[in-house]
Amino acid sequence: MQIVYGLDINNLKYLVLDYNESLMNGDTVRKLAAFRSGLGADRVVFMDMVHDTVIAIYNAEGHNVVPDLNDFKAARTISAGSHEREYHVTDYYLSTIVSEKTLIKAAC
Fold this sequence. Notes:
Radius of gyration: 14 Å
Largest sheet: 5 strands, mixed
Strand order of the largest sheet: 4-3-2-1-5
Strand content: 25-35%
Number of strands: 5
Oligomer: single chain
C-alpha cells in the first residue's frame, strides 16, 4: 500500500508521495493524476520522506517539470505534517496503472 497526500495550493491540486521508482514514469503519473480514473491532481510530487527532499515533479500530463515555488511549498507543507487529504492506495490499483513492470531477480 502506498500513502499519497493531497493538498491544494493556489488553485492547483497536488499529490505528494514517497519516492517509488516504479511509479516515476510519465504514463503511470498521468494515470495516477487523472481526475476521472485516478486520484485527480494537477501536479505530482515525489519526495524522499525520510530526508524531506524533492526527487521529481510531474504535471498531470505525465511530463517531468522544473519545480516552482508552489511545488516546494507543497513539499514543505507535507514535511511539516500538514495535508488536506490522505489516500491509501492499494497495491492492486498500483499494479493496474504501472506501465513498466520492474523485474526483481531473486537471489538463489
